[in-house]
Amino acid sequence: EFSRFNEGLTYFDTALTLAVPSVLVFLFMCGIFSSLLAAYRRNRRMKKLGK
């Protein structure tokens, strides 16, 4: 019973070590995308005001 629990723990640990970096990368990409989108919207608004 204990060995099975330990096996599950190692599997969970592996999943965690694989998931954490991918989640961080995903969040990083989201941050870049949102900042780019905000800059694009700001630029477009500025152009409209300029005309």
Fold topology:
Elements (H helix, E strand, L loop, with lengths): L1 H49 L1
Order of helices and strands: H
% residues in beta strands = under 5%
Cα-atom Rg, whole angstroms? 22 Å
Specify the structural class: mainly alpha
Keywords: Membrane, Transmembrane, Transmembrane helix
Question: Main attributes?
Answer:
51 residues, single chain, membrane, transmembrane helix, transmembrane, mainly alpha, rod-shaped
Structure description:
This protein has 51 residues and is mostly helical. The protein has one domain. The chain has one helix at 2-50. The radius of gyration is 22 Å and the shape is rod-shaped. The chain crosses the membrane at residues 15-40. Keywords: Membrane, Transmembrane, Transmembrane helix.
Give a quick precis of the structure.
With about 50 residues, the protein is mainly alpha-helical. Helices cover about 95% and strands about 0% of the residues.
